[in-house]
């Protein structure tokens, strides 16, 4: 049984704008799947559907065989953590307290926060290189710093399925690599990670699978060698791409893709 199963999903925004159109996807445990595709292809909408934040027009999402809409919010929070691309409004809260709020699904209603919960927060902030922000207000941080705090909050949630929308869009190259190394470590520990990203090269380096979307549908699903190819990407992204390969220290090669002006 896959950890995440999306079957024939369809969703429209007012207009109507068909964002997801009959999309199916199954993701097993201990996978790191990267959703790639141009703007408006349905990546973010798919993540929100899988997290139970949007209700599809048709189709079904299951987490370990259970209908996501049959779960209470607390049950969903135990099973899936969603890291949005940005916070629509910044709460007036300390970073440490914001990250600690990721533990709410594991606490009984009247239980006090335990030392174990505090230790998880400390470890998550350190792993995301955000410990120095612990006592600062969330609204005082830059976009890249807030993104690292959002990931720390997802880590303390300890859900077996992590959905992340554009985790590196506001980060410098060093922190981009560190974030994907964290996601890789989470996968190695048995969790399932699904990432929506525009960074084809980070996806190619870290993903166990790449899923290419176009107009709300899956058009390719495979490893980096299969998906990051001119035959697969050019019909979706257009002609402004350059392709190459980089030798790996342990032998073999890995493909890379660059935006390139062809004039």
- Taking the alpha carbons of the first and last residues, their distance comes to 49 Å
Mean pLDDT: 92
Q: How many domains make up the 3D coordinates? A: 1
Spatial order of the strands forming the largest sheet:
6-7-8-3-9-10
- What fraction of the residues are assigned to beta strands by DSSP? 25-35%
Outline the fold blueprint.
Blueprint: E1 4-13, E2 17-27, E3 32-36, H1 43-50, E4 58-63, E5 66-67, H2 73-79, E6 80-83, H3 95-100, H4 115-127, H5 143-157, E7 161-165, H6 173-188, E8 192-196, H7 200-206, E9 209-214, E10 217-222, H8 224-227, H9 230-237, E11 241-247, E12 253-259
Parallel strand pairs: 3-8, 3-9, 6-7, 7-8
Antiparallel strand pairs: 1-2, 1-4, 4-5, 9-10, 11-12
Helix pairs in contact: 4-5
């Amino acid at each position: 049984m896959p950890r995440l199963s999306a079957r024939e999903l369809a969703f429209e925004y007012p207009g109507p704008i068909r964002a997801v159109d009959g999309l199916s996807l199954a993701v097993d445990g201990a996978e790191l799947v990267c959703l790639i595709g141009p703007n408006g292809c349905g990546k973010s909408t798919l993540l929100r559907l899988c997290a139970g934040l949007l209700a599809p027009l048709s189709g079904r999402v299951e987490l370990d065989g259970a209908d996501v809409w049959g779960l209470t919010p607390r049950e969903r929070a135990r099973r899936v953590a969603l890291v949005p691309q940005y916070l629509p409004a910044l709460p007036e809260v300390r970073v440490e307290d914001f990250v600690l709020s990721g533990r709410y699904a594991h606490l009984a209603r009247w239980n006090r926060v335990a030392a174990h919960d505090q230790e998880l927060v400390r470890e998550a902030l350190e792993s995301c290189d955000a410990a120095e922000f612990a006592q600062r207000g969330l609204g005082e941080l830059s976009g890249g710093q807030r993104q690292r705090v959002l990931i720390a909050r997802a880590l303390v949630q300890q859900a077996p399925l992590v959905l992340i929308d554009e985790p590196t869009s506001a980060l410098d190259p060093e922190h981009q690599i560190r974030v994907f190394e964290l996601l890789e470590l989470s996968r190695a520990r048995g969790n399932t990670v699904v990432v929506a990203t525009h960074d084809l090269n980070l996806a190619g380096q870290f993903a166990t699978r790449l899923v290419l979307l176009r107009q709300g549908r899956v058009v390719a699903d495979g490893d980096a060698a299969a998906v990051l190819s001119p035959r697969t990407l050019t019909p979706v992204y257009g002609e402004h791409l350059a392709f190459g390969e980089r030798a790996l220290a342990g032998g073999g090669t890995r493909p890379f893709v660059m935006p390139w002006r062809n004039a």
